[in-house]
Amino acid sequence: MLHDLELIQVGKTYADGTKAVSDFNLKVGQGEFVAFLGPSGCGKSTTLRMIAGFEDITEGEILIKGQNVSHTPPEKRPTSMIFQNYALFPHMTVRQNIGFGLDVKGLPKAERDRKVERILDMFGLTDFADRKADRLSGGQRQRIALARGLVVEPDILLLDEPLGALDANLRRIIQNELKLLQRELGITFVFVTHAQSEALGLSDRVVVMSNGLVEQISAPKDLYLRPQTPFVADFIGNNTVIEGRARAAGLIDTAYGPIAGVGGEGASVAVIPAEAFRLAPSGAPDEIRLPGTVTFRQLVGAAGHFRVRLSDGREVKVETHSETPEARSTRPGDTITLGVDPRSVTLIAA
Length: 350
Known about the structure:
By secondary structure, the chain is of the alpha+beta class.
């Protein structure tokens, strides 16, 4: 199967010996939306720049549609990159900014103008086409940057935290537009972000990185519900991580008693999402039960947020629907028993 993008054991080591990225392996299908997610300094932007050709690789290979582009200069790669600061030319009009990449490619004027006008219309920028880019709002400048990246019809659009400079409301609007646009055009998107909500909400798959290494590559739902490493369990969502000792496949011994879950032989860490806790046991015979004392309660719309201190003083986060009888009646200071369905627990190696 031919992939739009393939990274084979890609690595980046700087001259001083610092390893920025190690052994990065990834296959991206045509029209897929993939997000690189991780804390600052984890190597996600460096990887994106290596794909674009702005950063040399020191190990491995990068293939685009089966062609090795590991040492191909950026302008010769079928990619387009959008930066957080948009990198627009302030002295140019919107129309000139969008057409710049086509000018570099030497397209005939008639074809260039046709492509520019079409994408101006697609992004709702026609009324602003002759204004200088620096006189427009953040949302409009973001659309210009997207239009400029897409007008050259790349095989892959690379986005390096492109929404980071926008306020929260505008960010949500552009997120929705971005996903709809990607589906409509069918272009492969590789998107770098440190915001979990963006990665989980926009992408088909998420690559979680830490210290230059890939921790997990999964669909958003699988990443959230089935973390594969302690880092991912701690980084994604509001999980309670309980260390123990492996007893058998699907079962570990902990300070709170045996905990069953989904996992293989040798797993010794239980990961319980905040949404998996019930404020009262359901009565199922295999249910995990954890006694504790409520220390915090907040009901916001349909969501109920609680914290419960367990027998050893540890506090766990509980998220439930605010309209359940237990959520309405439970108060700080109450002694309760949390219930957990073992099927919602993931057991991983330490």
